[in-house]
């Protein structure tokens, strides 16, 4: 197992945001985390990426205990993430943003940079090559010199993925990658996620768009009120009465048939 999460819990005051959650992320697979608003998805994401310290439980990555490690150490271990609201350097170009991700793994020092040592020049060239390859891979090479704030939302989202991949992660965690993009863009993003896995990077994602999850995920973890209520393949989860109940109970609109299974959340609800 690439990542093992065991009995993970997080309380805020008296509130159990995540309670005793266990699941595995298998190498080469796509694992999705779903659940109604406030189910604890973001909190769980923040726990496994080192942005929050758990109240209890453990996170193991490549057989090493990384429980409670701060975010930068978790990233160094090989876990990269994107954010619900894309965090780019808005005033830098798309290429400069991705280069910043490459720099995170650079070994050259400030002295190397000041004196432009051969090592520094070699690393600079390697970083630029890697940046261009990642921009091509994510389909945004033509935007490389554009200022990040000026490019379409879809391009920003792809740039955030390129930036995360620049750190050469083994596990990439995507926080609502399809939020705020159109259906066509979402389908194209799904293809990109498959290509990321084909590249050898394991993917975990939190997402509300059921069309994307159901067509993409190997396994789905379903949370409700902080607890794990289901785990399985899209087919297993879709027809699980507890899952349907959790979504209906959370106020989804419309009826649910066996075929429809759980309802897609309408845009604009929650964060
Ligand atoms: N920093 C915090 N301090 C206090 N309470 C928090 C904090 N972060 C989350 N919570 C609470 O923990 C619970 C789980 O929230 P979380 O954001 O993890 O859910 P979610 O499933 O990601 O929801 P959404 O789909 O709306 O993004 C909620 O009741 C939320 O109000």
UniProtKB/TrEMBL annotation:
Residues 3-250 form the ABC transporter domain. One of its GO terms (molecular function) is ATP binding. PANTHER family: CONSERVED COMPONENT OF ABC TRANSPORTER FOR NATURAL AMINO ACIDS, CONSERVED COMPONENT OF ABC TRANSPORTER FOR NATURAL AMINO ACIDS-RELATED. InterPro entries: AAA+_ATPase, ABC_AA/LPS_Transport, ABC_transporter-like_ATP-bd, BCA_ABC_TP_C, P-loop_NTPase. Pfam families: ABC_tran, BCA_ABC_TP_C. Keywords: ATP-binding, Nucleotide-binding, Transport. Gene3D superfamilies: P-loop containing nucleotide triphosphate hydrolases. Residues 249-271 are annotated as: Disordered. This is ABC transporter ATP-binding protein. One of its GO terms (cellular component) is plasma membrane. It comes from the Bacteria.
């Amino acid at each position: 197992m690439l990542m093992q999460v065991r009995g993970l819990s997080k309380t805020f005051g008296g509130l159990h945001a995540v309670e005793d959650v266990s699941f595995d992320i298998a190498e080469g697979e796509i694992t999705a985390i779903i659940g109604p608003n406030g189910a604890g998805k973001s909190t769980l994401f923040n726990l496994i990426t080192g942005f929050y310290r758990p109240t209890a439980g453990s996170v193991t990555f490549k057989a090493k205990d990384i429980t409670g490690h701060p975010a930068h150490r978790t990233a160094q271990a090989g876990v990269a993430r994107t954010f619900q609201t894309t965090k780019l350097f808005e005033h830098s170009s798309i290429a400069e943003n991705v280069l910043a991700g490459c720099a995170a793994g650079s070994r050259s020092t400030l002295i190397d940079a000041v004196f432009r040592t051969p090592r520094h020049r070699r690393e600079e060239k390697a970083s630029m090559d890697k940046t261009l390859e990642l921009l091509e891979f994510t389909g945004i090479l033509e935007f490389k010199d554009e200022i990040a704030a000026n490019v379409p939302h879809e391009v920003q989202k792809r740039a955030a993925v390129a930036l995360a991949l620049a750190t050469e992660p083994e596990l990439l965690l995507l926080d609502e990658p399809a939020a705020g993009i159109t259906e066509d863009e979402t389908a194209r993003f799904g293809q990109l996620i498959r290509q990321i896995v084909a590249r050898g990077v394991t993917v975990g994602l939190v997402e509300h768009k059921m069309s994307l999850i159901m067509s993409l995920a190997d396994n789905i973890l379903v949370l409700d009120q902080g607890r794990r209520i289901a785990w399985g393949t899209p087919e297993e989860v879709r027809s699980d009465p507890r899952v349907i109940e959790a979504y209906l109970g959370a106020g989804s609109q419309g009826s649910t048939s066996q075929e429809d299974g759980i309802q897609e959340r309408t845009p604009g609800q929650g964060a």
